[in-house]
Amino acid sequence: MDTGNPYTAPATTSAVSIRDVPEEILKKIKHAWVAAVISGCITLVATLVAMSGTDILGFSAWELIDVALIFGLAFGIYRKSRACAVIMFVYFIASKILIMMETGRATGIFMAIIFGYYFWQGIAGTFAYHKADRR
User: What is the pTM of this model?
Assistant: First the structure.
């Protein structure tokens, strides 16, 4: 279809293939990055409260680096990065262990298990996504 206009976009001759990724895989990834954003928001609020002078879990302004890392990893999971999903899971578990060692008590175990579950599902989802993507 030549219109004679040199500024007309060329017509395509082949159809663009759209990946067929099962919805359950995308759901796992979404739950993981949403959990990471929630975790980042909770950490941000705790950090801001600690910066205002209240002693909360030994937090200080240095935890803003932690917040930036969590939000960065959440974005990576959103972009379906396997590395970010694994790092988020390991980082979350390590931070919970450090907080428990520092405070001397195991508080928030129930919530930590829930977040850990979603981060683990994020690992499974990102790996399954990339496996389905290779087909």
Answer: 0.80
